[in-house]
Amino acid sequence: MRQKNKTVRHLKNEKLEVVKPDFRGNKTVDGQFMNGTELYTPELSNVLRWKFSRNPQREEKKADRFVPRVTYGCDFVSSPEDMVVWLGHSSFFIRVNGVTFLTDPVLFDLPMLKRRVGLPCRPDKLTGIDYLLLSHGHRDHLDDRSIKTIFQHNPDLKALAPLQAGDLLRSAEPHLPYQEAGWYQKYDLTPEGIAIYFLPASHWHRRGAFDMNKVLWGSFLIKTPTMQLYFAGDTGYNGHFEEIESLFGPMDVCLMPVGAYRPSFLMQKSHLNPHEAVRAYNVLRGGAFIPMHYGTYDLSDEPAGEPVRLLEQIAAAGMVQGLRIPAIGEQVLLRDLV
């Protein structure tokens, strides 16, 4: 279909179930995915404004020496317990019903972007991984070296990814099996007793000069008969949280991004600040709130420790009941959260 000289299509994986009634698929305009009905492209003028303006928190950021705590060791890899282990940034080791997931694995320094804090154990020690959950294609979430390393030491690994992510995955590791899904679709590669849904996020995509919004982005729900764990991916605040809650009800565990939100004129449509993350969590009627996307890489203008300080203030005011701020490598047992 063409609309005002633009090609409009709705895409989904035709082989997978769609769980939202009357959802036609993800809307694209001239091949670019949209945030629902809005096409979002970060404006170059805002990027230049950020790069060439003085950060009003410059001195505060410079003086802030915060780095996340690290609990060293690989005991969580061999433990039989169901758990969540933060590995830094948006990378989590998650075991549910004995099945192990790794979200957005970025385990090394990135080009021009070094990790500010290490891993609890060497990447090659992360074994027994069944599935990669890849929320989107930005380089701080889909890292070729990390994917190659994990696949090398987990030969039965499969990836669950967004629509049109296949070329990125084949480039990273040609032999990695994967399945793509659109929003509100249920992957069919998971074992009985665990359902994985790809759900909306408010974000965007770009890795190169000519691929703006060519790959979808989103969030994940890991669902069992007794628990719902939500991984929000990268997202701004939008109406998708209400839609997710209306379809699935309360979330027992919410892994929520809380960093890279300043300057707001550039970041607001694609990242959550701590107040927005708590608002989303409350819309989702969340149980445990575990923050991510802070402290590991320097991506924005806020001081490194500000997200944690704000979360602690918000919790002290009674606005988030289930806040857990684990160290990198700390085992957070699901039986203690649900």
TrEMBL record:
Listed SUPFAM superfamilies: Metallo-hydrolase/oxidoreductase (SSF56281)
Coiled coil (residue ranges): none
InterPro entries attached to this UniProt entry: Metallo-B-lactamas (IPR001279), NAPE-PLD (IPR024884), RibonucZ/Hydroxyglut_hydro (IPR036866)
Pfam families in UniProt: Lactamase_B_2
Highest taxon of source: Bacteria
Domain Metallo-beta-lactamase: 101-294
Name of this protein: MBL fold metallo-hydrolase
